[in-house]
Amino acid sequence: MSDADRTAAVSRETSETTIDVTLAVDGDGDAAVETGIGFFDHMLEAFAKHGLFDLTVQCDGDLHIDDHHTVEDVAIVLGEAFTEALGDKRGIVRYADRKVPLDEAVASVVVDVSGRPFFDFSGDFSQPYVGEFTSVMAEHFAMSLAMNAGLTLHAGVEGENAHHEVEALFKALARALDDATRVDPRRSDTPSTKGKL
């Protein structure tokens, strides 16, 4: 990884999942995703598209059990990829907040690329499943991403349709992370009085 290209390739293998992820923070929104969960693939593709991240995800998980390990472990690896790609975070904007609507649903995300993991979530999902994706795993994805990317992340959803609520959340995550990880041309240092994030 070099700070100039802000890219990462991360792999992780456990008894539950085998995952390969590549990430380019300054991409075009191109995605090639295969997790075995159709709706989750769709959400990761939306995350890439709306964050303008180039993303590949290949996951072979224990879907004969359920979707938990696949969703959680992809978030872990994606968080590690953001950490690697951003390096010392020199020059980044650091903070961002976004609200994204999808029909009756709206999701909000406030993020600080702080290096201090923290997660808070408000709201509930209106139906327990979207296809083969367990709705509450969207919250768990955001938490696992925050813990492994070193984000302070406050998120929430409201609505009447879980498909819309989950999709709005992934899009809000993407837009907020795109905003927060952009390089501010006025800044040459790390955006912290400590001199380090």
TrEMBL record:
GO terms for biological process: L-histidine biosynthetic process. Keywords: Amino-acid biosynthesis, Cytoplasm, Histidine biosynthesis, Lyase. Pfam families: IGPD. GO terms for molecular function: imidazoleglycerol-phosphate dehydratase activity. Its main location: cytoplasm. One of its GO terms (cellular component) is cytoplasm. InterPro entries: IGPD_sf, ImidazoleglycerolP_deHydtase, ImidazoleglycerP_deHydtase_CS, Ribosomal_Su5_D2-typ_SF. Gene3D superfamilies: Imidazole glycerol phosphate dehydratase, domain 1. Its EC number is 4.2.1.19. It comes from the Archaea. It catalyses: D-erythro-1-(imidazol-4-yl)glycerol 3-phosphate = 3-(imidazol-4-yl)-2-oxopropyl phosphate + H2O. Pathway: Amino-acid biosynthesis; L-histidine biosynthesis; L-histidine from 5-phospho-alpha-D-ribose 1-diphosphate: step 6/9. Coiled coil: none annotated. It is found in: Cytoplasm. Belongs to the imidazoleglycerol-phosphate dehydratase family. This is Imidazoleglycerol-phosphate dehydratase. It comes from Haloferax marinum.
